Amino acid sequence: MRLLLTFLVLMALPILPAHARTIVDSAGRTVEIPEDVNTVFAAGPPASILVYIMKPEALTGWPRALRPEERDYIAAPYRDLPETGRLTGRGGEANLERVLEIQPDLIIDFGSVRDTYIDLANRVQEQTGIPYILIDGRFENTPEALRILGEALGVPERGEELAADVKATFARIDAILENVPEEERPRVYLARGPEGLETGMKGSINTEIIERAGGRNVADDGGATRGLVQASMEQVIVANPDTIVNWDPNFYDKVFDDPLWQGTDAVQTGRVYLSPTAPFGWIDRPPSLNRMMGLIWMAGLLYPEQWQGDLRDDTRAFYKLYYQVDLTDDELERLLEWAEGRPPL
């Protein structure tokens, strides 16, 4: 196996492009990339969505093959791209042999730019000879992430178009929140999984959408804990959210009849909402550009009078601009059944 990897690396090195340019990624790394980037290996699911939205013809494959219920919401030419595995995150199963077999012009990761990911990018780039850039996946950085990727992939106009759309959505929400004091904003709990007891602490990448939409994440210990945690039922009852968002139909099906969950304001007032998940989750799963659709949805949930949006129109427009699909009426209705608490079977 070691000999095979060495052979593949040696085979890869001579075909690096003669004409190259440099780009500074979100980690401050100066990376030499080809003048024309035609193929990209996505290091994980967030990166695959980002690349697909920006320049779908460059994506060499999905880290996980699309499921049947997701396919209608991706443009037809890209539904059958091969499964490539992933280089980063939980369950990373792609290996360097696979990357070298694909021979992409560029590797992209979208998410954290902490030292762990910088070290991985440097190591993979050194071992394969393939340039590897890191793009900051924090929600607030989304416009800049789009600009960086648009420039890297040779489609700066597309990057600017999407960045402007994101900034407009952020500005629309900010205008609403200017008139809503922090203490009057909805208390929101993200209920992950079939039991609803996995959640994301305030400030985590999994719950940025709550805070950006103007909700107060009740999973807040003052910043002592970040990321996903397992909550107890007692903690949820004490936090007493007035709004619960979830993407698991198993949880949604039973929460209103569960005597423990009935102790929360959210269940008592019927403010438990099920997020659509096709082709990607609206809340996270993964935390990428798909969250922009969830942000629009959640702003409408939390501030329906001020937002004054039409979810059907907003969804159709988003899927056209970002996922490059024209939804039929049937596809739109099937998608929004989730948001109405009726996940399609």
Automatic annotation (TrEMBL):
A GO biological-process term: cellular response to iron ion
Annotated keywords: Signal
Keyword Signal: yes
Signal peptide start and end residues: 1-20
Entries under PROSITE patterns matching the protein: FE_B12_PBP
Stretches assigned to the Fe/B12 periplasmic-binding domain: 38-306
Family annotation (InterPro entries): ABC_Transporter_SBP, ABC_transptr_periplasmic_BD
Designated name of the protein: Iron ABC transporter substrate-binding protein
